[in-house]
């Protein structure tokens, strides 16, 4: 009979009485103790873990987007591209998570939905920050966070900074030696497609070898929006599959509201130019 393997024989440290452990470093006691179901329904744990892990991924997305914006401003494009790619992959993970949530049936959700009260993903300040970071800005969305002055201030501060798309457009201006319409840089309003910006990006796409850095930047942004759109679509279909056309717990029209959000374009010129090439 073979003796049980002892990792200590290979040098593995087995005692952490006086040293930091894996759980200590990651704060696992706090993290794994943060799930507090309010009902006896089995699937409430799934619902909580799904949304908590989504918030963790969004935390990382914000970290990467903020750094990417700074690197574009500093013309350190290679580093920015790596970070934008990482955010795209984060949204791929968020997309995959819907597959897990979709194992919950309408009957499963109904068993604990009343316990949610008025809480809703619509109130996620991190999701709102991501939208503000990439350029989908709307000051009216601040109101839902007024009960938390710290979060309201964080969101307000972001509206005072150029978005990721703003800094990309500034890089476009500098490389092409042009001046884009000032309306393209509105800080607290959603970005609207502009013909002059379409023309500028079209010039890049017509000669990608000459403008390779801008071309790659544009494609990284398109890739990011592609994943972001898939996330929104999966959100809509998951909600419709579980609650149909009921109103959301936060008071929105539910599926109708989410479908409206599908129409929002983050970088419209990068999509609009394609038909004219």
Can you describe what's shown?
- With 277 residues, this protein is mainly α.
- It has one domain (40-122, 163-276): Methane Monooxygenase Hydroxylase, Chain G, domain 1 (Up-down Bundle), CATH 1.20.58.
- It has 12 helices and no strands.
- It has helices at residues 22-26, 28-32, 44-73, 77-101, 106-110, 125-134, 149-159, 164-176, 195-206, 212-243, 255-261, 268-272.
- The protein starts with 21 loop residues before the first helix and ends in a 5-residue tail after the last helix.
Along the chain, the helix and strand elements come as HHHHHHHHHHHH
DSSP strand tally? 0
Instruction: Please tell me the total number of domains.
Output: 1
Coarse shape: globular
- Amount of helix: 55-70%
Biggest sheet, in brief? none
| CATH-derived architecture | Up-down Bundle
Going by helix content, strand content and strand pairing, the class is mainly alpha
Tell me the span between the first and last alpha carbons. 72 Å
Number of helical runs?
A: 12
Query: Radius of gyration over alpha carbons?
Result: 22 Å
Note the beta-strand portion: under 5%
Whole-number average pLDDT? 93
CATH class: Mainly Alpha
Write the layout of secondary structure elements.
Elements: H1 22-26, H2 28-32, H3 44-73, H4 77-101, H5 106-110, H6 125-134, H7 149-159, H8 164-176, H9 195-206, H10 212-243, H11 255-261, H12 268-272
Helix pairs in contact: 3-4, 3-6, 3-8, 4-10, 6-7, 8-10, 10-11
